[in-house]
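Notebook p. 47: complex prediction with acetamide.
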Amino acid sequence: MRPPGTFPRLFGALLLVAGAGAGCFAGDGGGSRQGSGGPAPGAVPALGRVVPAPASVKPGGTLYTLGAKAAIRVDDSPEVRRIGEYLAGILRPSTGYALPVTPGPGTDGVQLRLRPSERALGEEGYRLESSAGTLAVTAREPAGLFHGVQTLRQLLPAAVERRTLQTGPWTVPGGTITDTPRYAYRGAMLDVARHFFTVDQVKRYIDQLAVYKINTFHLHLTDDQGWRIAVDSWPALVTVGGSTSVGGGPGGHYTKAQYREIVDHAASRYMEVVPEIDLPGHTAAVLASYAELNCDGEARPLYTGVDVGFSSLCVDKPVTYDFVDDVIREIAAITPGRYLHIGGDEADSTSPEDYAAFMAKAQAAVARHGKTVVGWHQIAGSEMAEGSVAQYWGTDGTEPGEREEVAAAVKKGARLILSPADRAYLDMKYDSGTQLGLKWAGLVGVDRSYDWDPSEYLADAGVPADAVLGVEAPLWSETLTTSAQLEWMAFPRLLGVAEKGWSGARSWEEYRVRLAEQGPRLEARGVVYHRSPKVDWPE
Ligand code: ACM
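Predicted complex, structure tokens below:
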């Protein structure tokens, strides 16, 4: 639990960073950079120096060189052609090559091919073969091809990521990578409630997540400070509840068409969107929008502070459940993904009995509208339906009783997403000099965020490894207002969480070498990142 009153320096920090743009958000030990630099033209990373680490790497043979006459050869299907165009879109500006995307077989360039018989590659795996004359990515499903393309871009020199003409040669080390993920769920969350982020900002973040094979994008759409998604049957949720943000700044919301645009963009990056409607707490924006949803029938004022745990829907009123059903029905209808997240965290103003009764009804509404429930792990304090999912956000200091409650839910069939706040929360400060972010879960340096194993994390409480569906890296936005700030907090820690989700256990010492090589790549893509002093970034 986030203790109350832990934000005394927040507004000072907000003032400090206002207008900082893409500048340095650290007081000491590291900064951010964008612009010139990167490895010498033509520097070739060794096969397998990829994040997340591939499952099997067999270096050998002659390197492949992408030439000016190369084509991108694709299976004759619209989806594979689209992946080919995506790859061409990455390669054309920096190489200056035409790279036509051409259906049909051929060995005159990069081949992207689906082979349904390759059962071992599963839904997301791929094989990348590189030698003097051939560069082929093979997968069973399109998602696997897409992930293989992400590996390919990391095997080319970092300058390939730039959007202006660069000098080659454009080489890929020789050998074979065969790769499948450890976990089916590899998520990242963005809080668009505390501060609002536009569709374009969200798409930009999604594009960067895709590079590291994240396949789930969780949108935290509602909180005390703002309701960010239009609901036709309750229009004041956005006109009133979406009108402001932390600190009293401008609000914002997505129309349903804009939400669909985000969902479609995520799908084009093989990412499923999980919308979150946080209930029954974190609802001050709801209680400000509709008087009748308050137990005393009086609307509350809009809230622009950063406390938690003070708001609750009125559990005894029938209209509360009309509201819940309407919202869940409308959000489910515009969400093609399997999951609907109903929050359930920090409901400190709801009694445990009321909480259990409310969450039972909210979960029933999610099931009625055809989705699988996800909730923050406090949802284990209510009866969880078989197959529903608890998202664990405790820390090393979380009470054993709370961990055991989660383990008990798992025994009854719940599954787990792991987001331990002292490892996977991207809004925690890196070190004592970090101006952005919070520190209620401690300082989370790049090494600490990598120092955990999802299958072991709750083993001592009795959670078996096979209950873990995967991992997720949440990014809360109380202190964050720009894309540069989001990126500086997310990168490079997001890469470590992505690797926890995709790869088996590796050592920090091995990882930090691969991570260092991502610096010039992030920079070439124009991504602001924290130059942690714990990593030997190349100059
Ligand atoms: C949370 O950080 N309140 C899930």
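Notes: The pocket of acetamide is lined by residues 345-346, 376, 393 (CB under 6 Å). The two ends are 41 Å apart (CA to CA).
Next step: compare against the earlier run before touching the bench.
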